[in-house]
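All the exercises in this workshop are built on plain-text protein records. A record pairs a protein's sequence with a compact description of its fold. Read left to right, the backbone structure tokens trace the chain's path through space. Once this layout is familiar, the rest of the handout is easier to follow. Here is such a record, shown just as it appears in the course material:
>
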Amino acid sequence: MHFLKLPKFKIRTVVSLSKKYILSNKKLRITQFVFNTLSIIILFSIICANTFSFVVVSIEIIGVFLMIKVNHFLKKYRSKVYETLYIRDKLIYVLATNKLYVSSTNDDGKRYISRSAVLSFSVEDDCIVVRAHITGDNFSKQLRELDLYLSSALGIRLEEKKDKPEQTDFLFLKKRPERLYVSSKGKKKMNDSLQINLGYGVIYNPVKCPHILVAGGTGSGKSLFISYLLIEFLKKSENSIYICDPKNSDLGSLSHYLGEERVATTPNNIARVARLAITEMQNRYDYMNANFKYGSNFVDHGYNPIWLVFDEMGAFQASGTDKKSKEVVNEVMDGIKQIILLGRQAGVFILIAAQQMNANTINTDLRDNLGLRIALGSNSSEGYRMIFGSNTPENIPSIETKGAGLLYMQGSGKETAQYWESPFIDMKRFDFIEELKRYV
């Protein structure tokens, strides 16, 4: 039976202290308590009446049935509207405790709220969006800076903040994305798709977002993350990687598996490997121009992505100590600039890794052309600005998990870098070298 249906009217999601709200979770809870108490009293009175005619018994049965249905209705309705009312009550609390209102006195000498700042909100399956309405009054600055107050009131960490002239939106995720766990499948598995799953809700496509910057100090998980990316690159093609490692560390040792022609550790060899990648890019452009297709890219001509992985670029630049070595450094940096600016259509991309980024490592114009930028581990405010520039968030979340950091991906719809956790590699079930051997 459905004679008690849930109301179809929508609960107001515009919050202002100058408005009165009929419903609240507290009022609904009191209503249900009062109804249950009255039901028990009435039921007890009927039992004690000692009248057992057919009519009386029928009325008693109907009465009990109605009491159960009404109680079920109230319980179901409270469950349906609880979240919306909870958020509205919390926003009212934020406005009141931060004194975002103006009070006046009426003719009877009573105080009332004559003007109030206005918030609104929407509730989706996976997120809550709170909007502060900016009208240019004396509340405008406070409304734009409600991040911490809203986050603590709702008990959810702020995911993103978007400022516009007439409003500021605060996005809160109800459920955090899941971290990707990586383990060996024990067999070679090529990937025809260009997309790379970075976990934590991030899918990376170099065609839409070319080139990668990864920054992170010792113990941040940078090396493990780059190892994961190398395997993913190789899944597209076994000849898809060139590596430059001026410190001759872990990546430099991969020459035993990828070949010395593709892995370089000395300045001259780094210049040679960089030239190979640039030559490949130029050859692809020559072929694509000779077989011109409007709006096409390397995929349409049957090419796989090529990646130049450059670790510790700052160390390489520091190797330019005399005229000859500086010429080598300048040649390589000019080549890297070509790849960053021209490589997308030809499918030649670069991954730059560094412990710290500064203007000497790569200038801001080129940095802004690196579509995916990642900072692993904790960093200073200045360090984050060197990586993300204008996309640095105002409030940096705490980074406590190894392999966690901030990530910004152009075209993702996010205006600033977001908290992110890199794929977790189970070292007991994932042997990087054995996995590498399967693809080379």
